[in-house]
């Protein structure tokens, strides 16, 4: 089983619909992140969380919200989806307690907004 | 503004033909530079972390090096299975997020 699991893997939704992407991890890491990947733009940070009580905006948080339900779960919501939110979304984790800072990524969710 | 630029955007090599990928960065107080491999439709897979200029790390046919302004990912005698997009990212001291480059798409022809 993957250490960082994202659901769903693929989703097509209509403009204006609310949608939630979920991420769970079994790595025991304290930090979790949501990134968006677009062709030619690379990976961009949407939100990140240091622990259950801590949520921080990334560089492109407008139109998105997140919830850290538990140390192992971090969900991303699009309250009213729009076509330019069509992208590949990745959840990632890192463990700062070890002193290492590398992030580990899930397999991604391909979201299409029509 | 923190910036990461990778070159070339795409590179096509013959099997066994060694080459290097470049990652140049502008960031004050670099905490770490990271290399990832990404296969189509999959999440980035962690390869290396480099922390200070002069540091080198190796894994199979890959070797990553770091200077004060750039990092190189050297690929020695590549095989078709090394085909992927290679991503570089930097973490600034005191910050908790990574800034990614756009990646280099590497294709190794048999």
Number of E strands of chain B: 11
Query: Measured on Cα atoms, how large is the radius of gyration of chain B?
Result: 13 Å
Q: What is the strand tally of chain A?
A: 11
Shape of chain A: globular
Mean pLDDT over the residues of chain A: 93
Share of helical residues of chain A:
under 10%
Largest interface: A-B, 26 and 21 residues
Instruction: Please tell me the overall pLDDT of chain B.
Output: 93
> In terms of per-residue confidence, which ranges of chain A show pLDDT below 50 for 5 or more consecutive residues?
none
> Which secondary-structure class do the elements of chain A indicate?
mainly beta
Strand content of chain A: over 45%
Instruction: Note the run of SSEs of chain B as H and E.
Output: EEEEEEEEEEE
Percent helix range of chain B: under 10%
Provide the β-strand percentage band of chain B: over 45%
Radius of gyration of chain A: 13 Å
Oligomer: heterodimer
Distance between the termini of chain A: 32 Å
Distance between the termini of chain B: 41 Å
Account of the 3D structure:
The complex is a heterodimer of chains A (114) and B (110). Chain A has strands spanning 4-7, 10-13, 19-25, 31-38, 42-51, 54-57, 64-70, 73-78, 87-94, 104-105, 109-113. Chain A is globular and about 40 Å long. Chain A is mainly beta and 114 residues long. In chain A, the strands form two sheets. In chain A, strands 2, 4, 5, 6, 9, 10 and 11 form a seven-stranded mixed β-sheet that branches. A four-stranded antiparallel β-sheet of chain A has the order 1-3-8-7, with no helix packed on it. Chain B has strands at 3-7, 10-14, 19-26, 30-38, 45-50, 56-59, 62-66, 70-75, 84-92, 98-100, 104-109. Chain B has 110 residues and is mostly beta strands. In chain B, a hairpin with a 5-residue loop joins strand 9 and strand 10. Chain B is 0% helix and 60% strand. Chain B is built from no helices and eleven strands. The chains are: A mainly beta (114), B mainly beta (110). The A-B interface holds A 4, 31, 33, 40-45, 48, 50, 56, 58, 90, 92, 96, 100-108, 110 and B 31-32, 34, 36, 41-46, 49, 87, 89, 91, 96-98, 100-103.
């Amino acid at each position: 089983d993957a250490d960082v699991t994202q659901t769903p893997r693929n989703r097509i939704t209509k403009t204006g619909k609310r949608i939630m992407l979920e991420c769970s991890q079994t790595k025991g890491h304290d930090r979790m992140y949501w990134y968006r990947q677009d062709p030619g733009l690379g990976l961009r940070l949407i939100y990140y969380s240091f622990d259950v009580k801590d949520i921080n905006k990334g560089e492109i948080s407008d139109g998105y919200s997140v919830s850290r339900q538990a140390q192992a779960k971090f969900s991303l919501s699009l309250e009213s989806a729009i076509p330019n939110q069509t992208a590949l979304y990745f959840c990632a984790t890192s463990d700062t307690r070890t002193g290492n800072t590398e992030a580990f990524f899930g397999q991604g969710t391909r979201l299409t907004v029509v | 503004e923190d910036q990461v630029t990778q070159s070339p955007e795409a590179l096509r090599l013959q099997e066994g033909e060694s080459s290097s990928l470049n990652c140049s960065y502008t960031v004050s107080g670099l905490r770490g530079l990271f290399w990832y491999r990404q296969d189509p439709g999959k999440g980035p897979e962690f390869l290396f972390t480099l922390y200070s200029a002069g540091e080198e790390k190796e894994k199979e046919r890959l070797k990553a090096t770091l200077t004060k302004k750039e990092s190189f990912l050297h690929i020695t005698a590549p095989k078709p299975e090394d085909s992927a997009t290679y991503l570089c990212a930097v973490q600034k001291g005191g910050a908790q997020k990574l800034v990614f480059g756009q990646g280099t798409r590497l294709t190794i022809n048999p």
